Amino acid sequence: MAGSLHGLPGNLFVVAAPSGAGKSSLVKALLELDSHVQPSVSHTTRPPRGREKHGREYFFTSTAEFDSMVLGDAFVEWAHVHGHRYGTSKKAIEDRITHGADVILEIDWQGALQIKRIYPNAVLIFILPPSWEELRSRLERRGEDTAEVIETRLVNAANELAQAKEFDFVIINELFERALFDLKAIVHAQRLKFLSQRRLRADTFRALGIL
Ligand SMILES: Nc1ncnc2c1ncn2[C@@H]1O[C@H](COP(=O)(O)OP(=O)(O)OP(=O)(O)O)[C@@H](O)[C@H]1O
Ligand SMILES: Nc1nc2c(ncn2[C@@H]2O[C@H](COP(=O)(O)O)[C@@H](O)[C@H]2O)c(=O)[nH]1
């Protein structure tokens, strides 16, 4: 199958974290190292910030367009986050997974739990900051949000952190390289699990005369 790692549908990884914990940085680093993982680009009603480009970080969408996508059943999941709406379109993930790519979603916890209900094999990964002080300082150092937006995000973080226990894996992003190592290990382990559960196991069983 074209673009497929093993001729079978790909894996779905979902990364969530409070704003500023470092999920975009970790996912970006993973994508640079692993060409088989593809990002899903979400739709949002939030305005672009900094150097964000339409179609790269997000599809920046008016509320009317977002409404019409909701009515047209175009989203696999969507949620209100920090005063805006964000959603993963069916188009962003389904074709790619069917063609064997691994797809990674960077979404909030509400979306992650919706995805798990629809795709029970999706792997949910939660990124934790090492402390509240560090979370605040990362948001401030990033320098892309107003003080008011940073306060909203920190208030929302308390509720988000309480959801970590619902996830399959939790990574503490203190040392960036260590956290990236953990993320790569989870992706790798899921591929091995998938392969050993399916074709490789069947091939080996056949070779050993077990089947
Ligand atoms: N391990 C780390 N140590 C120090 N700084 C980090 C670490 N990981 C990420 N950062 C920095 O913290 C800031 C926030 O990271 P990032 O934008 O990746 O967070 P995020 O979780 O994706 O936030 P949002 O949900 O708002 O997009 C960035 O400036 C990033 O460079
Ligand atoms: N449920 C969804 N959440 C999403 C999606 N895309 C992004 N997000 C989450 O929103 C917040 C804020 O993101 P920001 O880019 O404005 O900082 C963050 O937690 C994202 O993960 C989505 O499609 N669905």
From TrEMBL:
Highest taxon, organism lineage: Bacteria
Localization in the cell: Cytoplasm
EC number(s) on file: 2.7.4.8
Domain Guanylate kinase-like: from-to ranges: 10-188
Reactions catalysed according to its record: GMP + ATP = GDP + ADP
Location, primary (coarse class): cytoplasm
Gene3D superfamilies: Guanylate Kinase phosphate binding domain, P-loop containing nucleotide triphosphate hydrolases
InterPro entries: GK/Ca_channel_bsu (IPR008145), Guanylate_kin-like_dom (IPR008144), Guanylate_kinase (IPR017665), Guanylate_kinase_CS (IPR020590), P-loop_NTPase (IPR027417)
Enzymatic class: transferase
Residues noted as binding ATP in the record, renumbered to the chain: A17, P18, S19, G20, A21, G22, K23, S24
GO molecular function: GMP kinase activity
Keywords, alphabetical: ATP-binding, Cytoplasm, Kinase, Nucleotide-binding, Transferase
Function: Essential for recycling GMP and indirectly, cGMP.
Family: Belongs to the guanylate kinase family.
HAMAP family cross-referenced by the UniProt entry: Guanylate_kinase
Protein name in the entry: Guanylate kinase
Organism: Ramlibacter terrae
